[in-house]
Known about the structure:
Elements: H1 3-22, H2 26-34, H3 41-56, H4 58-65, H5 78-92, H6 99-113, H7 118-132, H8 134-138, H9 145-148, H10 153-163, H11 165-174, E1 181-185, H12 193-202, E2 208-209, E3 217-219, H13 230-233, E4 237-239, H14 242-251, E5 258-261, H15 268-276, E6 282-287, H16 290-303, E7 308-312, E8 329-335, H17 349-353, H18 356-373, E9 377-387, H19 396-405, E10 409-411, H20 426-434, E11 436-439, H21 441-444, E12 449-456
Parallel strand pairs: 5-6, 5-8, 6-7, 8-9
Antiparallel strand pairs: 1-3, 1-4, 2-3, 9-12, 10-12, 11-12
Helix pairs in contact: 1-2, 1-3, 1-5, 3-5, 4-5, 5-6, 5-7, 6-7, 10-11, 14-15
Amino acid sequence: MTPKQDLARNTAYRCLFEVLENQGYSNLVLKQELSGSSLSEKERSFVTAMVYGTVTRVYTIDYLLAPHLKKGLESLDASVRTCLRMGAWQVLFAYGVKEYAAVSATVDLARNVCPKGAESMVNAVLRKLSSEGEDALSKIPAKKTDVRYSLKSEIAGCLNKWYGKEKAEKIMEAFLEIPDVTVRPNAFRVKDTEELISELKNDGIEAIPDPVVSEALDIPGNRMDISDSSAYRKGLFSVQSLSAMLVGYVASPEKGWSVLDTCSAPGGKTAHLAELMDNEGYIDALDANDIRLKMVDETAERLGLSIISTMHYDCTYLKDEKDKLLPEYDLVLCDVPCSGLGLLHRKPDIRLSMTYEKMQSLSEVQESILENSCLRVKNGGYLIYSTCTINPNENENRIDAFLTAHPDFECVPFDDKLPKTLLSNPRLLLQSKEGKMTILPDEEGMDGFFIAKMRRRS
């Protein structure tokens, strides 16, 4: 093992320890560790893959490690536990890593970071796991879908309940796929995507047009450094998932409109609305988290968008403060806090943190935001509700209950706002015509997402 490989695994170890033992966020921990690091692009990709891969597969890994540990995984020192988990990922799931090399490198790591003598146990356990190979995975009982797809049992149970066993398994399997990074050109500054492709190429970044959302660009590979590019600093694009981009297209704001974004941080959807308005009109961007709200200001400044005004505001209630907010808006966006179950492949930390109890409490928050925000929609104006979850109770059930309580609102079709390729899916075509649509990851290869578009009757 070369010193650089050692540095890469040490970096991955620190990240995984922080995420798995101290509830850190994978993306933030990785960003902090890789910022200013001497690791090459290839090594950074390896570290990123190991961190996201281990967190994604942690429940499967723990299940397969358990038979080889007399007193169980939780009895071990946290450093040993982390080494075993990252070693198991390399042995069982990593592409292009020889099993013997993975074991040897992890043992060397354990010798440096674990209590004295622990490397012998790490060596023995990983060698046993390596000898089992793919047989270990194939021996997981079929009924243990939570283990096979690395989910908490309660989350796997919810998916089975909502979608039926067969469909739920397809969704769970899709959440194990590694998602592409996608970028959205700044429509206010970039009029031709070829211009952005050329700029990115100058930065050493390959970009290709997305086959579904024509304005979007796909960035092959696990690029963590894209925000360090000169094109990003120039404000030529935003990093945004395809599903999140659809919110702006569905909202379809016009130049000069007044817009209220009730949960705006970190600002991707807010910026998209401003770009679609050609930076004409105004957007009041609110958020309950004043630290995250600064990200909206930074995004607007980087992209050259002057119509966005931010305010620290908890939208579970909206007081009648006319000096701060307009009484009514042409468009109100409620991109509410949610369980994030549509992002399990992109944000693996959600696998660790989300529970049924948390989903229930989030549902109450969503109801409060929707109830208060609808008061700010003018007659004939639009209310957009979106989430990045596939939980029906946070999505279509929430909208059905809202419409029952508010007969002055109605869902309106938005099929004409969506990419035609997407509408080749009959289910999405039907739902978009009904004004509320759920994107499922197993069908489109996109993030799980929900969007509803409502209009206040004149």
